[in-house]
Design brief:
The structure is a homodimer of 439-residue chains.
Chain A lengths: L35 E6 L2 E8 L2 E4 H5 L6 H6 L9 H6 L1 H15 L5 H7 L3 E3 L5 E2 L7 E4 L3 H11 L15 E3 L5 E3 L4 E2 L2 E6 L2 E7 L3 E2 L2 E7 L18 E8 L2 E2 H7 L13 E3 L4 E2 L7 E2 L18 H6 L1 E2 L1 E8 L1 H5 L5 E7 L7 H8 L11 E3 L14 H4 L7 E2 L5 E2 L7 E10 L2 E14 L3
Parallel strand pairs in A: 6-22, 8-16, 9-26
Antiparallel strand pairs in A: 1-2, 1-5, 2-3, 3-4, 6-7, 10-11, 12-15, 13-14, 13-22, 14-16, 14-17, 18-19, 20-21, 20-25, 23-24, 25-26
Chain lengths: 439, 439
């Protein structure tokens, strides 16, 4: 039997429709999605659910006495306006919320209920979203072998993939203080970099890069000292979103031996506004790319029959750039890459099982970054370090501008969605930010 | 002019005495110390101040209407029972609190005030302390060159000290979820380790180690994008405490390339109960060990005349072991090592300046770990990896037991204090924990 969040139910029915009609017209937020977000109203935090081009104010609904008690009960964990209590409540609470929202927003909902709910809908376009949660812990994996191989070839041509890579999903801890909401501009970092002539210098980063990643949000916590078995790993996943792991390659290159990335990463990390819950992902699981490779040896705590058959997840992630000149001239963002998490060497269940295999505890709302989602093809290289081969091969933009790394004024936009034959596309929204000059 | 927290004032007067008489008899908590802690009373968090063998309940004092308003005002930031608001309030608020407490606890305080305060004193021995603060960010440095050289010699005999070491204080981010209060036992971690014969295995750690460190707690926050200049770095330091950075050497050794330590560290990290505030440290600053070495080149953002003359800090840290057998037989803990932070290659001001040099923001209560506080001598090797030369040279205990790494049932105790000629010794308390068998 597969993990409960991987099971299809009526909420995944591709023919289901919402009475919020914008949800039915090829929206990335159809009723099968029901992603969560957070926003502020009169400085108070609220949790919302995306439906078409609207947001349902779940925090308001949770305390609206005129609404059915069963609906309010299912929303009890977001009544305080934060997402963390719901994350902490575990997978059954998340499923109950999804089912209640599906019933309330379905075209089968009673006219009376529709009328009662309408005042709690607001336009997404008029709503400024904030970070879904302030994560207490952020670990960043290196789980695409295509990314690891290309980066490895640049820095260790003789041994691009190290021996441990095939046995464990390599990762490091990132900084949480500088995690930013999508849309928040930031200044190009300064830092210590190596000069060709000898000693280092403290300068503005010259090799600013992005990394397109998924954020995997943890849900139900485990106690310290109790690893999460891989078979129940997905029950500890609350959902996924987009993540841009900004990287200052010149700072990183000089600092990283022997203890790994530090200031090359910690100046800014952006999370997407939306969290697509684990239950919404059920139709999009697939076999990992190596599943038919009998040679893939795994230690038992990172192996599982279910994971081998459907541990991969079909999430498309595109990276686009919009320079200051493109914005001024009204030119559409230019797509640099398109990749899919289903190509990933390590699966979400393996990341969770490995992360906790030493007994460390997940706190609700922790972010496990997938690492750069590069695939095998050239157009799926999901950071510029790969895309420009270490800054040696630039690319042209429609304006005639050329890029090898990210320049001041550039906006990097990542968009993502899940898609699978026979099911609607459900979106993760986007994560975007403009780079300001160094101060 | 030196940083405000480095300036001596009347609170450092070595002849000052408290009306709490246990503070005057060679206590580690004399009136010149006034360290802070946190405890719970009826499940409510409170901030306390150590004085002799007592704790003054600052949270209760802050809201005690019968007490002088000036005293209560100075304690306003701890009225809510948490240390973070005080940390966030910055160095002037911390100094005001220190001065108010000094006046209130001095033998010069009026009889009336002494009588009013007595009900708010409690015995330390009857009080269970909790973590001073839940840090949102934990970065761990590698700032002792003696530690780096010995570890480097074990893993890279041809290049023990890498070129970047002299130019920046190497560090990585640690995990905050598994930060534990002193006295909290934990289970030996399991993890993936390399076997001699080939592939890895998932087993109980066989090379469990400690690292004696200082925890440097951040105070006033900086805005994202605004590095803290080294000249004002100490104004962003709230105080220091003890830290045991438990390390599973076999897990760490297999996982750490190329992104640094992860599961080899994240299973448990212990913080001492007490925070000695930055103002209390004024008498103990000294010149760094390399200060007369004209060859020590530093980039301007990590250099400062004040730091060169008194950037070092005299903090003695001892490591002791008490095995299960020693406890059963009533044998005193056995001292393994004794080291002093004044030997450190990188100073606190440099750690803060480097950490924020890319613009990342400190949040109040963040922990910057000094890294293992090893000195140049054999008896100052502050982790077993060094002390037993990579596990090759064991040592004997009074019970006849032998150790190369930490065994189940062992308690590791670290104690620390500041000392300088002409000034009283002020203690950091201890950090201790017993290792339980793997589950």
């Amino acid at each position: 039997m597969s993990t409960v969040v991987q099971q299809l139910d009526h909420t995944h029915n591709p023919t289901a429709r919402s009475w919020v009609i914008s949800a039915n017209a090829g929206s990335d937020f159809p009723i099968q999605n029901l992603p969560l977000c957070r926003f502020e109203e009169a400085r108070e935090s609220r949790v919302g659910c995306g439906i078409g081009d609207r947001i349902l104010d779940l925090t308001a609904v949770a305390i609206a006495v005129e609404l059915p008690e069963s609906l309010r009960d299912a929303l009890q964990y977001v009544a305080g306006g934060q997402m963390r209590p719901l994350m902490m409540a575990g997978s059954y609470a998340a499923k109950a919320l999804r089912h209640a929202l599906f019933a309330a927003l379905s075209e089968d909902a009673s006219d009376a209920l529709q009328k009662q709910l309408k005042p709690y809908l607001r336009a997404q376009v008029d709503t400024t979203l904030v970070l879904p949660v302030k994560p207490y812990n952020f670990s960043d994996f290196y789980s695409s072998i295509h990314h690891a191989a290309r980066i490895g070839a640049l820095v260790r041509p003789d041994a691009p993939i190290l021996p441990n890579y095939h046995w464990l999903p390599v990762a490091y801890h990132g900084r949480t203080s500088s995690i930013l909401a999508s849309g928040t501009s930031f200044h190009r970092p300064r830092g210590q970099v190596k000069t060709l002539s000898g000693g280092p210098e403290y300068v503005s980063c010259r090799r600013l890069d992005y990394e397109a990643e998924l954020a995997i949000y943890s849900g139900a916590q485990n106690a310290l000292g109790e690893p999460i078995p891989i078979g129940s790993a997905l029950n500890h996943v609350f959902g996924i979103g987009l993540l841009n792991d900004w990287s200052a390659r010149d700072i990183q290159f000089w600092e990283y031996a022997p203890l790994g990335p530090f200031l090359g990463k910690s100046f800014a990390t952006h999370l997407g506004d939306w969290v697509v819950t684990a239950d919404a992902l059920a139709p999009y699981w697939t076999s990992p790319p190596w599943s038919e490779d009998g040679e893939r040896k795994l230690l038992p705590h990172l192996d599982d029959p279910d994971m081998r058959s459907k541990g991969g997840l079909q999430v498309r992630v595109d990276v686009l750039i919009r320079t200051a000149k493109m914005r001024a001239e009204g030119i559409d963002a230019y797509k640099i890459s398109t990749s899919n998490f289903k190509e990933n060497y390590w699966t979400i269940a393996q990341l969770v099982a490995h992360q906790t295999s030493n007994g460390t505890n997940l706190e609700a709302g922790d972010v496990l970054g997938s690492g750069t989602l590069s695939g095998p093809t050239d157009d799926s290289r999901a950071c510029l370090m790969e895309f420009t081969n270490g800054g040696t091969v630039g690319f042209d933009l429609p304006t005639g501008e050329k890029r090898t790394f990210v320049e001041d004024g550039d906006e990097i936009v990542m968009t993502g969605w899940c898609d699978a034959p026979g099911f609607p596309r459900i979106g993760l929204g986007e994560v975007t930010a403009i780079v300001l000059p160094a101060r």
